[in-house]
């Protein structure tokens, strides 16, 4: 039985959110580690054509480096009007590792003058739990668990004035359910619609079932 889980992300904001989503697992005595705890600085080449493919690629890559059960996710903003971009390009939509501000301005530039009906968009996340062979006492070569979730809305004409560093696309999304900027949601509203936390909640149930075997 494993005693540690690695969160495979270098994004500090995403790391904090995933850690929060794993509190129930931590209460079971499982230690939650970050890449920085293991001094891992490398990154895989994200060659997947979908968020799901990239999430699995990252989980497998970091599980291979650490020999630990690993959780990795991939996700971003999908804008149908822009042929589903930025999609898997996400942080590298501009052809390089762009800053939050660059991504926000690039998105707005591509939608300049576009009417509200064509500004529909959604945030998607795909999350994998990857248990490598040497940490797997279930008799399987490896084990993977998967969840995904989306948040629907539309892209605003300007970013929210107080946006969270590390989540540039949230600064632009007005959430359908509340007709509010994502970053203007109350704590309770955020818990209700946060796609990563909702996906993690279901993933934790699956992991917990494995722990009880």
Description:
Keywords: Hydrolase. GO terms for molecular function: nucleoside triphosphate diphosphatase activity. It holds the Pfam family Ham1p_like. There is one protein chain. With 213 residues, the protein is α+β, with helices and mostly antiparallel strands. It has one domain: Maf protein (Alpha-Beta Complex), CATH 3.90.950.10. 31% of the residues lie in helices and 23% in strands. It is built from six helices and eight strands, in the order E-H-H-E-H-E-E-H-E-E-E-E-H-H. Strands 1, 2, 3, 4, 5, 6, 7 and 8 form an eight-stranded mixed β-sheet that branches. Helix 1 packs across helix 6. The longest helix has 17 residues, at 195-211.
Properties at a glance:
alpha+beta, single chain
Mean pLDDT: 92
For the sheet with most strands, the description reads: 8 strands, mixed
Alpha carbon gap, first and last residue: 9 Å
CATH architecture: Alpha-Beta Complex
Element-by-element helix/strand order: EHHEHEEHEEEEHH
Report a brief summary of the structure:
The chain has 213 residues and is α+β, with helices and mostly antiparallel strands.
Layout of helices and strands:
Blueprint: E1 4-7, H1 12-21, H2 23-26, E2 31-34, H3 51-66, E3 70-79, E4 85-86, H4 100-110, E5 120-131, E6 143-155, E7 173-175, E8 180-181, H5 187-193, H6 195-211
Parallel strand pairs: 1-2, 1-3
Antiparallel strand pairs: 3-4, 3-5, 5-6, 6-7, 7-8
Helix pairs in contact: 1-6
